[in-house]
Amino acid sequence: MRAMSPLVEIRLVTVRELRRSFRSFKGVLLGIIAIAGGAGVSMLLAWIDRAKRESLPPGIDIEAAQEPFFTASYGEETGKAIAACPYALWTILVATLWLGPLLISLLDYDTVSGEVQHRSVRFWTVRTRRSSYILGKALGAWFSVLAVTLGMNVIVWGVTIGVGKVPPAQVLAWGARFFAVTMPISAAWCGVAVLVGSLFRTPMLSLLAISAAFSGLWILRVVAGLSDWPWLAYAYPNFYDSLLLSPRPSTVALGLLGTGAIAALTTGAGASLFRMRDV
Amino acid sequence: MASLRSPSPGGSVEDAALRTVHLTKRFGQKIAVDDVSLTVPAGAVFGLVGPNGAGKTTTFSILAGYLHPSGGRAEVLGFAPTAVDELRARLGVLPQDALLPAQDTVGEFLVHMAELQDLPHPKALAAARESLDDVAGRDWWNQRCGSLSHGMAKRVALAQAFLGEPEVVLLDEPTAGLDPRVAFEVRQLVKAKKGHRTIVISSHNLTELEETCDYAAILDRGKIVASGSMAELTAANQEVRIQLAAGTRRGTTPGEVPVSRVRDIPHVTTVDLQEEQPELVVGFDRSQTDAEAIIGKVLTVLLQNEVRISGVTKGRGLEQRLIDLVG
Predict the structure, then answer these.
(1) What is the pTM of this model?
(2) Fewer beta carbons below 10 Å: N end or C end of chain B?
């Protein structure tokens, strides 16, 4: 008998997970909060951006005005490369990176534990490889987060274009680039969330554990900055934003490799542990 | 008992659908299943019987691949129960207390399950509809699983267990918590599916198991205390029991039980009149005759002596057998 491809299993579980996410009260509420919040904040940011551009002294363009700030944040090469970006879009990138873990923990904490708690998972384990179930869940969680953050970003792009100080093509180009930066980083966070969340049978414990794990990773980042162990920062997904924003392809590749490794290792570990456990 | 077609402790049966060999499951210090070896012949309806904590749900859960054994092994159609690729679409399971996914509609849930059995979407759709029709749930297709009553949810779960006509179906407490009418319908469904596939039922409802199963294993404290065909377990092919009107006594006068005349019936081996019940238990040589022939002859003798009879059963009944074995 021909074996069913794991990719088909993963696709089926992912699609069902997406449907589940956006049908649940929690998913709808988080989506509305994120998108409505994004809309509100973007209005404010676009207004700030516009005021900033209008108040520039003659002969100084926005790139020159923003360059010192971005250089201080990301280093000279990357700072110069993104100096011309609309400030509102950059702010939304930062907000997405900081609020992403919160959104992911709230959206994904019961992805696996909820179905283990109520034993619904037993309907799947008879028909699906457990590794495919976890991978499908992780992908579904990631796509749900991407859908919410994309919705938020699209509103910001629309408002920025509406304000009219930046050409639409530039807004879309910067917007797409910044959104692309958040994609691998949120994949890494989702991997951590699925790994930690799948270890618990109770969604509330899962939420607490995911929050603790995310905080732990942030503490690692802080320790890395203060100690002789700077490599600890590589465990923190948001560390990779500066690499992913770099104009140098090899640096971007390193960023992708790092976030991809976190996502793959955590999801793989989650799948292995789930395969060994009783459900 | 260890014949080719019988479930047998540790027996090697070529056409076995399920098999456990020295199966053990520990939860910490507690041994839930202790060295259980049994074989379920292909095509049989097999009951797992026992009091609470006997280990039947744990055994069931290992066979369904939910739990990993601590020792020994389990096989379904020759494969480990966790071998999803080999068992996909060949094994259907009704878990006892698993909640259906509340956000999915019944149709979405069943189609999704059918697609995971490697059915292309049109076939999955057809299989899901057919399966839902089988449990008389056609009208629930667009209803959210979370809004179903307990009985409806149980039937939807049953529909997913029989989805795609699997070769082996495991049912854990299929009628638990159902009202009598729905429980009857579920029993009828299981009977209708009987013969086409191997079905294993774990249940507390002994009357239901006696009525439905060909074979059973009685578990107590994690161990098998008896197993075999239902006729063997209930001694249905070894003895008949005649329930008598209250106050019936041994004797030869009209209305009394002429025990010696019953004993003289050919092939009768034992006669025991339990006056406190009152019940007449007649054992016979099953190699020479059968229960129906003995019932006819014993009733003739009793009726000739004007004994008042209130009922006749073959064997002890599974309930009595269970009480005899596990107290």
Answers:
(1) 0.85
(2) C
- Candidates A29, A120, A123: best to mutate against B (most CBs of B within 10 A) is A123
pLDDT value at position B275? 84
CB contact under 8 A, A19 and B103: yes
pLDDT per residue as tens digits for the range B248-297: 999 999 999 999 999 999 999 999 999 888 999 999 998 899 889 999 99
Please judge whether B108 and A19 are an interchain contact, meaning their C-beta atoms are less than 8 angstroms apart.
yes
For chain A, the structural domain boundaries read 6-276
Of the candidates A182, A144, A178, the one whose C-alpha atom is nearest the C-alpha of residue A30 is A144
Residue from the list B98, B99, B116 with its beta carbon closest to the beta carbon of A9: B116
Residue A24 to chain B, least CA–CA distance (Å): 7
Chain A residues whose C-beta is within 8 A of a chain B C-beta are 1-4, 8-9, 12, 16, 19-20, 23-24, 115, 118-130, 276-279
Q: How is residue B287 written in tokens?
A: 């190699």
CATH 3.30.70.100 region(s) of chain B?
A: 239-326
- What is the percent of chain A with per-residue pLDDT over 90, rounded to a whole number? 55
How large is the ipTM?
A: 0.85
**CATH architecture for segment(s) B239-326:** 2-Layer Sandwich (3.30)
pLDDT tens-digit map of B5-17: 344 444 444 588 9
Q: Is B88 in contact with B168 (CB distance < 8 Å)?
A: no
| Sequence-distant (≥ 6) Cβ neighbours of residue A4 within 8 angstroms | B85, B88, B116, B118
A-chain residues within 8 Å CB-CB of B91? 126
CA distances from B124 to A8, B15, B164 (A): 14, 29, 8
Say how many Å lie between the first and final Cα of chain B, rounded: 23
Superfamily of domain B16-232: P-loop containing nucleotide triphosphate hydrolases (3.40.50.300)
In terms of CA atoms, which chain B residue is nearest residue A111? B101
CA distance, residue B163 to nearest chain A CA (Å):
11
Least confident piece of the model among A36-50, B29-43, B185-199, B227-241: A36-50
Query: In chain B, where does the domain assigned CATH 3.40.50.300 lie?
Result: 16-232
What residues in A contact B93, CB-CB < 8 Å?
122, 126
A·B CB contacts under 8 A:
77
